Amino acid sequence: LNFALYEEFREVFAVFELPAPLYTLLAGGSAGAAASTCVFPLDLLRRQMQMVGLGGRPDVYANVFEAVRHVFDTGVKRSPRHEHNLLGIALGLREFFRGLLPELIKVVPGTAILFTVHNRLMN
């Protein structure tokens, strides 16, 4: 996913006629951010399901659908007065992206550097 997005972002940033290392950094960072944002909800569910039964924790999920429902319900219950309207749904969906900012702070610089070095070595 990173490489496909990187190629797309390279074309986007190439139009601005920036120095090659700068637009490669921007394209790599943007690709990392976009890929992480797309994959983050799945990664969150994976981490949630891995923790089931660990260290004496109760078995909470029998399958992926129960994990999705639990995460969604957690978000909806953050604001009880909005449980039955559109804001409640938005809060439920938002829960799948809780913790995305620290993930982006971790991923974007690394991906930007990775693609800059990759581009430099390929040339």
Task: Give the arrangement of secondary structure elements.
Layout: H1 2-14, H2 20-50, H3 64-76, H4 86-94, H5 100-122
Helix pairs in contact: 1-2, 2-5, 3-4
The assigned structural class equals mainly alpha
- State Rg: 19 Å
Distance between the termini: 22 Å
DSSP helix fraction = over 70%
Low-confidence stretches: none
Q: What is the typical, i.e. mean, pLDDT?
A: 89
The number of helical segments is: 5
SSE arrangement, N to C: HHHHH
Give the CA-based shape: elongated
Total number of beta strands: 0
* Assembly type: single chain
- The portion of residues forming beta strands comes to under 5%
Could you give a short account of the major beta sheet?
Answer: none
Task: Write a concise keyword list for the protein shown above.
5 helices; 0% strand; 123 residues; mainly alpha; elongated
Your description of this structure?
There is one protein chain. Helices cover 72% and strands 0% of the residues. The chain is built from five helices and no strands.
How would you sum up this structure in a few lines?
With 123 residues, this protein is mostly helical. The protein has 5 helices and no strands.
